[in-house]
Amino acid sequence: MEYNYEDAYKDYPIENGIAVFDDGSMLMTRSIMDPLPAFMKKADMIFTDSPWNQGNLRSFYTKAEIAPDYGYDFLRFGDRLFDCIWEIDPRVCYLEIGKENLDVWLFQMKKLFKYVTFFNSTYYHDPQKLCYIVRGARKAYRGRKYDGMDEEDIISAVCKEEEYEIAGDLCTGRGLVPCAAYSAGKKFVGTELNHKRLSVCLKRLSGLGASYRVET
Ligand SMILES: C[S@@+](CC[C@H](N)C(=O)[O-])C[C@H]1O[C@@H](n2cnc3c(N)ncnc32)[C@H](O)[C@@H]1O
Known about the structure:
By secondary structure, the chain is α/β, with parallel strands linked by helices. It has 7 helices and 9 strands. A 9-stranded mixed β-sheet has the order 5-6-4-3-7-8-2-1-9.
């Protein structure tokens, strides 16, 4: 079965090259298992909803039509995700995760950030679909408690309320984070495994009025 995401990739191709926006924001099709592009290190705030477990990781590789590789190993994937965050060294980082690996994400975040907390959340605006947003930062958190909000609303609120200049997303997908950052008047950078999912992000950003060129 092919996953074409309403064919956005035909009008907004991004299989190769970097989408460079008028304000300097950048997006690229790239696996986090590969070396981090230099532009990702500009992010001073990260918000990433990566695959949550082994089965979820496998299904995203299937949807991307990418052959099995070490990216199928969830523990290695998790280690690499946190290595990327360490390399970027943002002042604040939000990660979305399900219950199964909440403890792993908290443990990894505590290795990188002095102050770690998390919020209870939901996804797809369905009260039955539970998830967690883990927040790590260099300074103690005195902001709003986002408990009970849907992840999409938390992303919008964080992009408006956090102190940052450039939002980074290592697993950009169809673009909730870039769209929220753009709507908040902020820059963004992002990578994504599946070019067809990243095309959906480009389509959405274009609909919001953003313009970009693809540089090779
Ligand atoms: C839960 S989704 C992200 C949802 C995203 N917030 C959105 O707005 O669509 C996880 C994403 O991680 C991507 N992904 C999986 N493995 C990856 C890898 N090795 N490198 C980069 N992205 C990856 C998937 O293709 C998928 O788009």
